[in-house]
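The records we work with from here on pair a chain with its fold. The integers have meaning only within a learned vocabulary of local backbone shapes. A complete example follows; check for yourself that the lines match position by position.

:::
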Amino acid sequence: MQMNTPPRSTIRLTRRGRLVLIATGAVVAGTAVAVPLLSLESQGEKKPTTLVIPEGWRAGQIYDAVDKALAQPPGTAKKSLAKVHLTLPNEAEGNPEGYLFPATYPLERNGRKTTPEALLSFMVDTANRKFKGAPVAAGAQRNAMNVYQAVTIASIIQAEAATKADMGKVARVIFNRLERGMPLQMDSTINYALNRSTLRTTSADLKIESPYNSYQRMGLPPTPIDNPGEDAMRAAISPPPGDWLYFVTVKPGDTRFTNSFEEHRRNVAEFNKNQQKPTKAR
């Protein structure tokens, strides 16, 4: 254990999970939907013509949304990966996590319903257009990493940052920890390993055997942990200067960054106290 790293069992770098945006059902905005219902026609509503992929969704959520939008059996989109050639970095080893770019995609092309293969290819092609440009490549090189590593960092930022304003600071925490040889200790990577979203991480969670356990493994996780948007990517390649090593969202709108472990412990104690307060009925 390094001298500048407090005991892993006591560190909580963020303690904030990424809440699922939409648990069930549909959110209809015009004809765009995040998770469309299969019974729109029976309700007399127009069939959706576009599929909205929010920033920070994991690949599994996107596969489910594609299946529902195209009225396909569950698991169809994921199985389609075996028969579609996606243009992914070699490091991805065929896993499109991080490259299913969040945007609005058409469900029909030339008057015909699209396919899961075509939708997933469209998402990856969009990511490549966003990520392969000179600014991203130069920014990654400036920070001594490749583009895939930058996307991986952006995915952590997307999961961890409570607001757009916090993204740059979260990026700086990640770089500061990597440069000091400290484990990232990000709860979002634990959530990814356990396929969940939560505000709390238990001591047992921190002991799981997984390459995504950033409490026990050094460096970045092997793949991105979600599909980040452009703001997170900008933060990943151009973080602001700062000496922060810890952060915690004490309450909504109040994320505190510090380089002092003792100050961080006080912030975490305040977070825990706030979590124990009863929720007011609306």
